[in-house]
UniProtKB/TrEMBL annotation:
Protein name: Malonyl CoA-acyl carrier protein transacylase
Active site: 101, 211
Gene Ontology MF terms: [acyl-carrier-protein] S-malonyltransferase activity
UniProt record similarity statement: Belongs to the fabD family.
Length: 328
């Protein structure tokens, strides 16, 4: 579907597509789809050629899959392969796209804002820069549950005043669910304080503290690569992580992608925006169900569909076509 056709088809729907970020990867992802749709292997071949190594092998074998520089291009490619299958099957073109962290790049590729080849190169570099910005073992992330945003921000601010590094609210995922990121000792301190405040704290199995001030050096280098990458305005509006808003020009797109490395993911506000625009149906275009499970908690979202297996995609495709009045 051309950019113009996508833009026209998307206007009359109440559907949004959500693209997951790092942590949704699974060994063997999309194997079932690859047996039925040649485009899946072709999409991975396209991305692999751009990046110089076999992403499909990593996805299926799991070798190096959890290394950030590999995880990001593999997940991006998997999401775009599913997007292409969805369109091939006649699925509804969504009115809005949004991606969580890395998923913002998937959304931009789906919206014809950048090519898959350019995007996989960018996220591969992004992963390498993130890994080198904070030596392994010095950064951490944790989910804080049951406290409001203001309290989590306060705890991070108090901990950071110790002068032993920094810790920030990294992902506002939902009401009462905030992920923090920063120096190991300070993340542990906030976790302990959160528990004292009757909240819950869960350490996340990551080696890179994303979306926090420790990533500023990586962002400065990444901005140079972004400037050299061809980007155009999306054919379907893409909500940006840093402000839950839609860019009005390409300069804003580049700026938001750079800032995304060290600023918080505003996912709660993103979903609130979609609901305010009358979105009733969402589909998670990637492996897993993280974003679908968050969306199911929202009052105005009637249905949230994972599409990571053939049966799930077929269910979502038919249910949305019926709900949108495209078929009886």
């Amino acid at each position: 579907m051309s950019a113009k056709q996508l833009e026209q088809a998307a206007q009359a729907t109440k559907t949004a597509f959500l693209f997951p970020g790092q942590g949704s990867q699974k060994v063997g992802m999309l194997a079932e789809f690859a047996e039925q749709f040649s485009g899946v292997q072709e999409t991975f071949a396209e991305a692999s050629e751009a990046i110089g190594y076999d992403l499909w092998h990593i996805a299926q074998s799991g070798e190096g899959l959890n290394q950030t520089e590999n995880t990001q291009p593999v997940l991006l490619t998997a999401s775009i392969a599913l997007w292409r299958v969805w369109l091939e099957l006649g699925g509804v073109a969504p009115k809005y796209l949004a991606g969580h962290s890395l998923g913002e790049y998937s959304a931009l590729v789906a919206a014809n804002s950048m090519t898959l080849a350019d995007a996989v190169k960018l996220v591969n570099l992004r992963g390498k820069l993130m890994q080198t910005a904070v030596p392994e073992g010095e950064g951490a992330m944790a989910a804080i549950l049951g406290l409001d945003d203001a309290k989590v921000i306060e705890l991070c601010k108090i901990a950071s005043q110790s002068g032993q590094g920094s810790v920030d609210a990294a992902n506002y995922n939902a009401q009462g669910q905030v992920v923090i990121a920063g120096s190991v000792a300070l993340v542990q301190e906030v976790m302990a304080q959160a528990k004292e405040q009757s909240g819950k704290a869960i350490a996340l199995p990551v080696s890179v503290p994303s979306h926090c001030s420790l990533m500023k050096p990586a962002a400065e280098q990444f901005a140079q690569a972004l400037e050299q990458t061809a980007i155009q305005m999306p054919s379907i509006p893409v909500l940006q992580n840093v402000n839950a808003a839609i860019a009005t020009d390409v300069a804003q797109l580049r700026q938001a992608l750079t800032a995304q490395l060290y600023q918080s993911v505003q996912w709660t506000k993103t979903m609130q925006y979609l609901q305010a625009q009358g979105i009733q149906y969402v589909a998670e275009c990637g492996p897993g169900t993280v974003l679908v499970n968050l969306a199911k908690r929202l009052p105005n979202i009637e249905k949230a569909f994972p599409i990571d297996t053939q049966s799930r995609m077929e269910d979502a495709l038919n249910a949305i076509l019926v709900a949108e009045g495209k078929i009886a």
